[in-house]
Each structure stands twice: as C-alpha cells, then as structure tokens.
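Box 3.1 A note on notation
Throughout this textbook, protein chains are presented in two layers. The first layer is the amino acid sequence; the second is a token string describing backbone geometry. Keep the layers aligned when reading.
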Amino acid sequence: MIVSFNFQIHAKADNEILVTEEYEQNFSLNFSKVEKTGIIQSFAVADDGRIATFINNQGINIYDEYGFYDFTIYKELYKINVTLQWDNDILLIYLSSSWDGNDYKIIKVNGYEDYEIFSCPDNGETRTFWNTLDNHDYELITDKGRYYVKYGNLRYTDKESGADHAVTENTSFKPWWLLSIPALTAIIWFGFLRKRVKTWEAWGGFAMNRKIFDILSENGWTTDRKTDITDILEWYHRNHYSVNPEQIRLLENLANLDILLECEEFLDGEKKRHYTYKIQFFPIEYSLPDEFMESYEKYVNTKLIPIGGIHFTNVSLLMDSQLKIYGVADSDIALLGNRIFEAIENLYENKEIVWKEIDNFYS
C-alpha cells in the first residue's frame, strides 16, 4: 500500500519503508500532451483498470480506467529499461540506463490530467523496494483474463467469455513491415490525437473525444447498444430511401436516443454563455418533404437519409452513405461533421459551422 502525505510518499514493501526526498514540478519530467505512437515495450494495469504503457524510445502513456488516453510523461527514453507497476492510484516507475544510472519516480494520479510527481532517492532502501516490482513486457494474467502485447498493441482476452479486443490502439506498427528489415528502424512515429482515443473499431477507427464519450454515456448510450429499427427500415423503404449496412449499424446504435448536450462556455462580449442542445435520433419524426430532400441531395451531390434533429430548433439531421452528417433548416445546409460523433463534438466545442443557402430552393 502507498499513501500520499502532501509532498512525500510513504511506500511500504514487506517491512521496508521508503520516503521520498523531494517533490518535483511537472515540467521537470518533460510533460507532454501529445500522445505517442509506437511499440509497447512494457505495461502495467491497475486493479481499477488504469493502464500505463512504455513506448520504446518515446514515453510513458497513462490511460484511465476506461482505456482513454490521459497524458504522457518523458518525451525521449532512448535505450532505457522501464519497469511500471500500479498500486491503486499510484504508478511506480523504474528507469534504468547504462550511462545515466537508475531513476525512481512515483506518479500519484488524482484524475484526468491531474497528478503529482515525486522523486525517490537512489539508495539501498529504494533499490530493495523497487526490486519487488513485476515488469510486464509480454503478458499479465489476472483472475479475470489475460493482458498481452501483440504487434505493439495491448490486448485483453476475457477468461470467461473468451472475447479478445484491443485495449490500446497507440501504435503505427503493421505486422507485414517485418518483411522489410530496414523498416524496423522506422516503426516509431508521432501521432497527434490530442486527448482522443480509438473507442469504436466498428466505425473505421473513428476517434472520439473522451468528453463526448462521457456525455453520450450519461444519456444512455453504449458502444454495443443495439435497438430494433425494423419500423424505421420499413419507413425508409416505403419512402424510397436507400440504406447501406454501415448506416443500419449506426442507426441500431443511436435510434430513439435523446442526447442533452450542454456545450462549453464561450465569451459573448463580457458575459459567459453556453448553448444547450437536445439531439434526438428519431428519423421518422424528423422526416422532410420530398422536394426538400431532392434539393439537399442535389446540392451535396449524394443521397441522404433523415436520422433525427435538434429539438426546439428547425434543424434536421441528414446522413449520407459515407456517414457524413448534415444539418438542414429550410433552404440552409451545413456539414456538421464527417461522423455523428464529430458533429456532436463540433457543437459541444462551439466550432464555427458554415451554413450555405441553397439558391432557388422554393422554386
């Protein structure tokens, strides 16, 4: 058990007591908000699901209990052995280098991008304590399942169901690169996801902002939500709409949901304001006249289907075959996002949305 007391940490291993000497500010560890990509060399998983991964030659990524990327420490770790281990919300880090010696760090993670860093002295007591750490460079077997590294990614196999899935998607490594030995020198590269993580492989690897994920979850949404949309598909068919499999999968996940979206604050002069939207995924209720749909489709040069709208406004939501989302209001139309989750994020962050008026709309 490890307990934090202001600017020092008491760490207990058997009967040994380790007390840190000094508190370090975040910048001394080259704190970075840029998520790293590359090959996982070692990892640690806490009892509550938190994850830490060491990316070769790059840094140490911290993920929360839902698998969402939080932050990265250390910008460069060349030719260094790294051991990671969690104890509740405490991450123990042991860095060993042939020329820089040993370095012992303790990261107390309080919450999203909220943490404290402590440095431990390099002495006999510290080395004795850190020798008790387990380094997971290939697999970690728990009573519930097995974590393991494959092609540089951390994966998990559930013991009871046998289901296997990727826990992290933070590598650019492709297995067929092994056919080219020189390519091994170029496996590591930087990705700029900025607090975004791959949360739903079913939608082509679309990365969702963590905040949007939380908002959707609070409104009853889950990644595996699947509703019966037989009546909606029959209505599409009667009204001569063509719906592809990807659109059907998205509709099964979102149909009949109400999303209350309280957007970020913004300054209006000297006053802080924020918008609140109620996004409804009721395709039938937000149907539009055929002549309106024809004008919208002609303007964007693709087929569209209604999927819902924004309550208390005259904005309806349309989707094309590539899952792009458009907002329409009478003769006005705007691309809200390349996916529904991006559209929701753009609304939440008050992104500028360019509305275009369709000429001769009513003629």
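The CA atoms of residues 138 and 149 lie 5 Å apart. The two ends are 74 Å apart (CA to CA).
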